[in-house]
Amino acid sequence: MLRNFFKSFLNLFLKPNCPLCDRPSDTQLCPYCQRQIFRCQFPPEKKFSKEVPLYVWGQYKGTLKQAIVAMKYNNHPEIAEPLGYWLAEGWLNSSDNINHKRPVVVPIPMFPDKQKKRGFNQAELLARSFCRATGLPLKSQGLERIRDTKAQFSLSLQQRQDNLKDAFRLGGDLRQSNVNSVLIVDDIYTTGATVKAAIAALKRHKIAVVGVIAIATTKSLSDK
Ligand SMILES: [Zn+2]
Fold first, then answer.
1. Within a domain: residue 16?
2. Is the pLDDT of residue 108 over 50?
3. 217 Cα–ligand 1 center, Å
4. Could you tell me the CATH number of the domain that includes residue 170?
5. How far is the CA of 39 from the centre of ligand 1 (A)?
6. How many domains does the chain have?
7. pLDDT of residue 224
8. Rounded mean pLDDT of 14-35?
9. Res. 98: pLDDT tops 70
10. 99 alpha carbon to ligand 1 midpoint, in Å?
11. Ligand 1 centroid to residue 124 C-alpha, Å
12. Residue 15 C-alpha to ligand 1 middle, in angstroms?
């Protein structure tokens, strides 16, 4: 009993370790890794806009990539908290967020089986933290993924679009609502095929997408 007492006493003072570098840390990510992540942030004027305003926080590389990989594949959902907060901070400072009234925030959903296996949807967790920081309403079940999609990375753009066609439909959170403007949240923006399919699903119900935000992109600064 005494040993248990000392153990729990000690635990009061032992800090959990940073999931990226294993240093003791008061926050989900240690200050050192936070600084490294901010080196992956895009300058404020960087835009990847096409049909809809797109805001991406940073480049999918270095410590930012490491953090996203740890979050998704090494069971560290808590990393979504700071990432979602930084996403909110960056988006609020970008010009994209002005000129439209409060949209509801909808994360890109995962296929249910896949989410069950992982235990969480990282886009939803990012959206949750983003909404806490911005005060925007969250509709985490705004969309549903009705088709499992093959791994996207090995496919061409056309193949990706075919693969994703009709992959989404309106979810329970939006079916009986009068929501007419949505801000979509995803974790990584690649070709935009996923987002395009999600926008199409919302459009079928006359819901406008006022913007798309993601924490990282695989596109480089020179891409248009
Ligand atoms: Zn660290």
1. no
2. yes
3. 22
4. 3.40.50
5. 14
6. 1
7. 47
8. 91
9. no
10. 38
11. 24
12. 13
For 145, the 3-state DSSP assignment is strand
Q: Residue 208: which domain range?
A: 24-217
State residue 222's pLDDT score: 59
pLDDT tier for residue 191 given thresholds of 50, 70 and 90: confident
Q: Is the pLDDT of residue 46 over 70?
A: no
Q: Which residue has the higher pLDDT, 2 or 79?
A: 79
In a domain, 89, yes or no: yes
Query: How many angstroms separate the alpha carbon of residue 115 from the centre of ligand 1?
Result: 27
Give Cα separations from 174 to 129, 199, 223 (angstroms). Answer: 20, 14, 34
**Ligand 1 centroid, distance to 35 Cα (angstroms):** 9
User: 19 C-alpha vs ligand 1 centroid, how far in Å?
Assistant: 7
At which residue do the structure tokens 């959990």 appear?
A: 16
> What pLDDT does 101 receive?
73
Report how far ligand 1's centroid is from the alpha carbon of 75 (Å). 16
Q: Is the distance from CB of 171 to CB of 30 less than 8 angstroms?
A: no
User: Is residue 59 situated within a structural domain?
Assistant: yes
Tell me whether residue 2 is in a domain: no
Q: How far is the CA of 23 from the centre of ligand 1 (A)?
A: 6
